[in-house]
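All the exercises in this workshop are built on plain-text protein records. The record below serves as our worked example for the rest of this section.
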Amino acid sequence: MFKKVLLVFIIILFSISLINCSNQGKGSSNTKGTAQTSTSSNSQNKSGNQQDIQKKSTTENKLTIEDIKAKYTGGDSGKIVNTITYMSKYILVEYSTDDTIGHCFDFYNLKTGDKDTLPIYALHVKLDKIVNENDIRFICDGTNNINGHKSFPEIVECLRGQEVTGYDGEFYQVIRSYYLPIVQGVEVGAKPYETIADLNVSLKGVEVLFEPMKGHEDYFTAAYVSVPFSKAFYDKAKNQFVIEFKNTDIDNKFNISKINGQNRYLSSISIKRSGSNTVLTINLKDTAKYYAAIESNLEPVIDGDFPCLDFNFASEFKIE
């Protein structure tokens, strides 16, 4: 009997031992799983933080709009008139250094901190469009802010081959002819006391050559050479384009009778004195819808440059 009881007691102890071993195994497994989960989470957090740091370093700019505006605070560099953002990376700053002259333009790269002053010089312009970061286009109304010379409205493009960080000078200026509707009159030129030395009908319009009026040679070449002050307008009733050259004579050697040519845009022209002025009348064809007045100089000669004024016509708007 005693042996049976002893046997039962041993079986019970053995069963309890097995149960305890099983529970300990489960606890170890749970602890291991918890440790693995914690390690994986820490690894993911560390990786995420590194990505955030890398993202911040690649998107961080060296300049902000506030930094740029601060450069012009106090008026030492000029007074900001307008700022234009391009592609979230570039800022074009339009500013004035003097109320009596035109505005200047600086182009900033927020990413690199680079600054470029655009070569507008003495021209009075307004922004037309930013074609891209290497091509910025303006429209010039023809006013020169230094000498008062009035030229025909034109396109002024500031171009560069590529951006050069740290160098303020890669942009260069290109002037393009800008055709106006024939009904829109203009004023060009600056100096009086000139003489029409020659006039020709060209393929696209009329070319006029000027020389100094006798007795005014010094004034003609003083400071700069220019075509005379001229006013151009369209007479719709007669379909005529009229140019009045102020204080301008006609050279006696110039044969007025020879100017009877025509081209695709004009049928005939005439020229005559009107008091102290000279009036050039161009009889247009229906193909003449737009025009441009282009100033140039003949090749330098011993006595100096002689200015030319070309009136070119076109059937549609264009930029040359």
User: Anything to note?
Assistant: Confidence is low (pLDDT under 50) at residues 1-14, 16-41, 49-58.
